[in-house]
Design a protein that fits this description.
With 209 residues, the protein is mainly alpha-helical. The chain has nine helices and no strands. Helix 1 runs antiparallel to helix 3 and helix 4 packs antiparallel against helix 5. The chain starts with a helix and ends with a helix.
Length: 209
């Protein structure tokens, strides 16, 4: 296998920062909407150590990087006491949406900075900074659309629970107990790519023409 350890390290660093901001966004939003649980656990933080999940943040990304697969992953879920939220159903949906929204914002900011330091028309090598910014755009878009897969406990599933009428939300929530089984099946069969890659490629063409 042809593995570039520097490229793997850079990609992993970008992913770790992106996941850290993603989880901090969940925690900050929950705190602002009335639930201090995450703040009390130190999760309103940009310290990646408080958010790491050893499988989703370390093992899966390393396997993806050395296998030349799309770099995605997840961090330790932010606990939310729904009863503390001022408008539980609506606010839990907003807390869930905060993570993917943070990734989309990170991608937009990175794309803007990339335009300042490099242009595709330049014949020269893009350099380390441009490479990091390009990876930040790509990885954050992958994370955003991965997390928007509408399967609990992913953010997309929790957003869906807030959008569905109560009569449908209750049975839909029962998928949560099988969520990771379904998710692993989607990842292993590449079905997840069919959901993630089209919007990622579309946004890449917009952000980096």
């Amino acid at each position: 296998m042809n593995i570039d350890p520097i490229a793997v390290a850079i990609s992993f660093g970008v992913l770790l920062l992106s996941l850290t901001i993603h989880e901090a966004a969940h925690a900050w939003t929950a705190d602002k909407l009335g639930d201090p649980t995450a703040r009390g656990l130190g999760r309103v933080s940009l310290n990646p150590l408080v958010h790491i999940d050893w499988i989703g943040t370390v093992l899966l990304p390393i396997i993806a990087a050395v296998s030349h697969l799309p770099l995605i992953g997840w961090a330790k879920p932010v606990p939310v006491a729904i009863r503390n939220l001022r408008h539980p159903r609506r606010d839990f949906m907003l807390v869930a949406a905060a993570g993917p929204i943070s990734n989309l914002l990170q991608a937009i900011v990175a794309a803007g900075l990339l335009r300042l330091v490099w242009s595709p028309a330049q014949p020269t090598d893009p350099g380390v900074l441009a490479t990091i910014l390009f990876l930040a755009v790509q990885i954050n878009l992958l994370l955003a659309f991965f997390n928007l897969i509408p399967i609990p406990p992913l953010d997309g599933g929790n957003v869906m629970l807030g959008l569905l009428p109560p009569g449908l939300a209750v049975p839909y929530s029962q998928l949560r107990q099988y969520g990771f089984i379904i998710l692993y099946a989607l990842l292993l069969t590449a079905a997840a790519s069919a959901f993630i890659m089209p919007p990622t490629n579309f946004m890449m063409r917009i952000l980096i023409p």
